[in-house]
Amino acid sequence: MMKLQKFVLASITTVLTIGTGLAFAQFQKPEDAIKYRQSAFTVMANSFGKIGAAVKGEAPYNKDEVAKNAAIVATLSSLPWQAFGPGTEGGKAQADVWSDNAKFKAAADKMQLAVADLNKAAQSGDLDSIKKTFGAAGATCKGCHDDFKKK
Ligand code: HEC
Question: Nearest CA to 143 among 104, 116, 98?
């Protein structure tokens, strides 16, 4: 019995250790991190753009579609940042991302709060507040791109 418990404990420790190792080695090369964050931005921007089309009247407003896309944006908004770790400079990211990282992180937080507001509005289906929160969220994208993304 003791032996089995010890074995189980050892196995759990091994699994935890491997898990942690994988988390750190998630991006083995800087290119992997760049590809990851660009992909996350691309998919997020696709849903964001669909909401934009409805907000601007370029596409009919469909509550369920907008709600679905806002939920996708809100979920994906947490993904890119883990792929901006030390040593992953490159892509269209400016060097300021790393040299002024506190400002970059603040801009990322601001965007996540803004898209959470947009998601709340989208789930409620109130088009006026969807328009308002979409505009505010879009401004946080642009704000960060102006400061941290190469043209
Ligand atoms: C805190 C900063 C920041 C915020 C906020 C931000 N972005 Fe970006 N975005 C970047 C950076 C930096 C890049 C360049 C990444 C790279 O090439 O490595 C980028 C790249 C992109 C790209 C291009 C991806 C590619 O394949 O080249 C798209 C599209 C994009 N962002 C959309 C958005 C949208 C939409 C929002 C708002 C909902 C947003 N971003 C918010 C910093 C930000």
Answer: 104
Rounded to the nearest whole angstrom, what is the distance from the C-alpha of residue 67 to the centroid of ligand 1?
22
Mean pLDDT of 33-62: 97
| Nearest CA among 119, 146, 138 for reference residue 45 | 138
- The CATH code of the domain at 29-148 is 1.20.120.10
CA torsion sign for 144, 141, 107, 74 is negative
The three-point CA angle 66-68-69 to 5° equals 65
Answer whether residue 16 shows pLDDT above 90. no
User: 26: pLDDT confidence band, cut at 50, 70 and 90?
Assistant: confident
The answer, yes or no, to whether any atom of ligand 1 lies below 6 A from the CB of 72, is: no
